[in-house]
Request: fold
Amino acid sequence: MTSRERFLAAAYAQKTDRRPIWLMRQAGRYLPEYRALREKHGFLEMVKTPELAAEVTLQPLRRYALDAAILFSDILTIPEALGIPYAFREGGGIAMQGKIENAHDVKKLQPEDVTGRLGYVYDALRLTRAALRDTALLGFCGAPWTLAAYLVQGGSAEGFPRLLALAREDKKTLHLLLEKLAVAAAAHLRAQIAAGADAVQIFDSWAGICPAEDYAENSLRWVKQIIEQLPKGTPVIFFAKGAKDTAALWDSGAQVLGFGSEADLPAIAKSTPQGKAVQGNLGNALLLESPEKTAAAARALLEKMRGIDGYIFNLGHGLLPQTTPETVGALVDAVTHFDVAP
Ligand code: CP3
Reply:
């Protein structure tokens, strides 16, 4: 099996020779070759220059036997294409250069034009596709709820209180915003698939801050609307980090659900609908311990997932910048050498 075949087979819950693996944030600051390029270029410059974005996407694939590459980009390219750019704060976090406070702000957003301004993403995917024949290539976007978190808050903030206040006080405006973000996200994913993505992941990184009883109408509904607009036959991975009602996430129509490390993945996998798959969820902080402990923890998770078809190995959240490349190597070796025989 090639990596691409293995990844796609697992996504459709078919048998594989071993577990496929990729890692969220597999391209990034833990790699010296990323930091070397980053010294010469700004993050957004790298994201917007297709040759650089493709190069950074390929960096982890040169080191490790990963089964999928995820395009080096960002979920905040959609807000930027909608006219609200962003920057990094000193000491971490995001500062949006504008925020959505009322219906008037939402009405100014024009999601119809978004793909015209995101051509650099599709160019980067085409370059990466040409360099990777046998590896799965993933595109992605942010879920409307998570994008709204940054837009309404005006950047990162603990618990995103402005988003929660808008959800309580002016649901109509919030839904107008979510609807526009869903239109933009669907168009962006369609264009990424057309440019060669084998699968796409929708990141709802802030699912966990939404009150459980509101999640269906504030997030799930819009994710479902996005997925309905995508071509059948391209698997969609829905990563709703911290979502409380995990069974309800299947209502999105996703082929694969990704889980954070707070979820009991082996238990969830046992009640996965026939033909669907799960992804996750080794704790990313575990990798800061040692290569040996990381490999042992990975084997323990694989053991618990034994016999379950439809499993893609990943972390519960992105690789932390302090992770050593040696530990990532030990993790990938542990997963790719694990005997999956029942
Ligand atoms: O996973 C990958 O390797 C693909 C590339 C990727 C990045 N961001 C690169 C990146 C992906 C899939 C993302 C998604 C993303 N971006 C999410 C959803 C996933 C998650 O982590 O929950 C979110 C919330 C963002 C927004 C964002 N971009 C944040 C919060 C940050 C970190 C800001 C900080 O505190 O430093 C970024 C920057 C970013 N995105 C970096 C990378 C490699 C680091 C930038 C740098 O080099 O300084």
Residues 171-194 form the longest helix (24 residues). The pocket of coproporphyrinogen III is lined by residues 24-29, 38, 43, 70, 72-76, 88, 92-94, 140, 203, 205, 318 (CB under 6 Å). Strands lie at 68-70, 86-88, 94-96, 136-142, 199-204, 236-240, 256-258, 277-282, 311-315. The chain has a mean pLDDT of 97.
